[in-house]
Structure prediction request, 371 residues.
Amino acid sequence: MDNENSESLITNDLEYITNNLPEEFQALANKKILITGGAGFLGYYLVNSILYWNKLHHNQIKITVYDNFIRGIPQWIVDLKEENKLEIVKHDITQPLPENIDDLQYIIHGASIASPTYYRLYPIETMDANVNGLRFLLEYCKRQKEKNQPVEGFLFYSTSEIYGDPQSENIPTPETYRGNVSCTGPRACYDESKRYGETLCVNFAKEYDLPIKITRPFNNYGPGLRIDDRRVIPDFSRDILADRDIVMFSDGSPTRTFCYVADAIIGYYKVLIKGRPGEAYNIGVEKPEISMRDLAEKLVDIAKITLGYQGKIVNVASPEKDYLVDNPNRRCPMITKAKQELGYEPKIDLNEGLKRTLIWYRDNRQLEATR
Ligand SMILES: NC(=O)c1ccc[n+]([C@@H]2O[C@H](COP(=O)([O-])OP(=O)(O)OC[C@H]3O[C@@H](n4cnc5c(N)ncnc54)[C@H](O)[C@@H]3O)[C@@H](O)[C@H]2O)c1
Prediction:
C-alpha cells in the first residue's frame, strides 16, 4: 500500500472507467452534458472520467456543472475551474434554471444531499432538489423537444432507499419490488422525494416521449467521498486515520453491499446511454452482503497491515437520536436487469476497494471543503 499513492490509483480508476465505456463515451462525443450536484462524491468521478476521456480524444465532451455547494466547495472543483476545463455554475437546482442555459444533449441530475445525517438536517432542501429541481429539468427537456433541440439522454439519481426496509423474501431486491417505506419517518424526506421523483420521470418519459432514465444506487464508496460525510465507510476511516478506536453506532448487525465508485460510475453512464426510457436500474454489487461489524473488522485488518493501525471496535450510542430510526436491516440488490440489458459487470472486490479508499483518505486529509 505504501508504494501506491492516490494520484496513481485515481488515474487507474479513470482508465478503467473509460476503457469500459467506449461506446457510451463515443455517444457523448461533441455533445454537451449537464451534471447537477457535480461537485459531490459521484460528481468527482462523473466529471473526471469525461475529462480523462477528453485528453485522449479530439471530439471533446463539453461539461457544465450546477451545484449550490451546500457543504462547501471542494478543492478539486476550484482547481478545475482555474484550469478552465469545464463550466462550473453556482446554481441551486430548486430555483428556476438560468435563463442563458445552453442547448444540452445530456443531463445527469445528481443534486441532492445523500448522507442521512445531512438530509435530516436539511429535509426541505432535500425534498425540493428531488422534486422541484427535477421538475425544472424535466420541463426543460420538454421545451427542448418542442424547439427541435431534443435532449438525447437524461439520468435521474434515485436511491436504493426507495425500497425502505425490505422483508427477507425480497432480498436480493429486484427493481419490481415496491418497497416498505415510511412516508413520515426521519428518512422520509429523502426516500419519498426520490420515489415521487421516479414517478415524475416515468410519466414525463411516457407523456412526452422523452429519454428519461432512472438509477437506484446501492451504497457507493471510494475516493471523492468526503471523510466528514457521515456515511459509514468515511466514518470508520476517520477513526482509523485519527488512530483511535472505531466507533459503531449500531449493534453492528445491519448489512449492506458496497459498490466501489469506479464500477458504479460505469453503471451510471450505461444507464444514461443504453437504459430504456421510463425504466429504473439497480446499480451496485450483489456480494458480499456484509454486516457493519464485519465491515469494521475488515477495515481494521487492512489498516493494521498497511497503516500500522492498532485500534479496536467499540459500540457507542449515537448522539443523533434518530440515527437508527427506519434504518434498513438489510440492503442488497439484484442487478440482473442492468447486467442483461446494459452489460453492467462490476469487478472491483471489497478488499481492493477499501484499500484504495484508505490510501485516498490517507493522502487527501487536507482536502477539506472550504466555505
Ligand atoms: N453515493 C451513494 O452511494 C448514493 C446512493 C444512493 C443515491 N445516491 C444519489 O446520487 C446523487 C449524488 O450522490 P453523492 O453521493 O455524490 O452525494 P454528495 O452529497 O456527495 O453530492 C451531492 C451534490 O449535490 C449538491 N447539491 C445538493 N443540493 C443541491 C441543490 N439544491 N442545488 C444544487 N446542488 C445541490 C451538493 O452540494 C453536492 O455537491 C444524489 O442524488 C444521491 O441521492 C448516491
In short: Residues 36-37, 39-43, 66-71, 92-94, 110-114, 129, 133, 157, 159, 217, 219-220 surround nicotinamide-adenine-dinucleotide (CB under 6 Å). The radius of gyration is 20 Å. The longest helix spans residues 123-146. The CA atoms of residues 96 and 136 lie 6 Å apart.
